[in-house]
Amino acid sequence: MEDSKWEKFAALGGVAFVVLNVVGAAGTGAPPDPGKPDKVAKWFNDHAGAIKLSQFLGVLSVIALLWWFGSLWRKMAIAEGGRHRLSIVAALGLVFSGTMFMAANATLSATALRVDDVGNGATIFYTLSNVLLASAGAGIVTFLAAVSVLALRANMLPSWMSYLGMLSAALFLVASIGSANDSTAFTLFGFLGFITWCLWTLSVSFELWKHPASAGAPGTANTTATASATA
Fold first, then answer.
1. Quick one: which of 23, 77, 96, 151 could link to 139 by a disulfide (CB 3.0–4.6 Å)?
2. How far apart are CA 41 and CA 32, in angstroms?
C-alpha cells in the first residue's frame, strides 16, 4: 500500500479521537458543583459505570490521536524544512496534555471503582481530576499554538484552521486558571475550548485525508524555501 494511503488512514485517528471523547463525556452527564460534596458523591454513584467506560474510551482516544499526530508531524516536518523546531514543541505539548488528561480520567475511574469506600471524600478526588484536566490545557495551548503558527507561516493549512486553533488555544488558556480555582466559570471555558478543539481536529483530519504530506499537498512544495526565508 502506498505511503499516502497509510497517512490517510492515520488521519482518521483524529475523527476517532473526537467521537470517542464526545461519547465518553456525554455518558457521564452534567458535572456536579465541586462545592457540594453530597452532589459529587451522588454523581459518582449514579454514573459509576459511565465514568469507568469514559476512562476506557479515553485510553482508545489517546491511541487514535497519537496515530493521527504521526500524519500531522510529517506535514509539519516538511513545512519546517526538516528542522523540527515547532513540530517538536507541538509533540511535547501533546504528550503533556495527554498525560494530564489520562491522569484526570484515571482519578475519576479509580474513585468510581471505590466510591463506597471514599463516601463524601469523593470531592477531593473529583477536585484533583479537575485540576489535572485544567493543567492539561497548558499542553493543548502549546500544541495548538505551535501548529497554528507554522501553518500560517508556511501555508501548511488553510488560514481559517489556524485562526480556529488559536481561538481554541485562547479558551484553554483561560480554562487553565481552573488548576488553581474551582469556579465553574473556568469549566465553561474548558468546555468551549474542547468544542473548538474538536472542530479544529476534524478539520485538520479532513485536510490530512485530502492532502497527505507524502502526496505533495498544496502549499508544501515550496515550504522548505519558505521556512528558510522566514526562519
1. 96
2. 9
Distances 102 to 97, 106, 217 between C-alpha atoms, Å = 9, 6, 33
Strand locations in the chain (E): none
Establish if 226 belongs to a structural domain. Answer: no
Residue closest to 97 by CA, chosen among 138, 69, 145, 144: 138
What whole-number distance in Å separates Cα of residue 210 and Cα of residue 230? 27
The verdict on residue 19 lying in a domain is: yes
Question: What is the pLDDT, as a whole number, of residue 73?
Answer: 93
Domain that holds residue 19: 3-218
The residue type of 103 is A
Q: What is the pLDDT of residue 35?
A: 82
What domain count does the chain have? 1
Polymer length of the chain: 231
Residue 123 lies in a domain: yes
CA distance 47 to 53: 10
For the entire predicted model, the pTM comes to 0.85
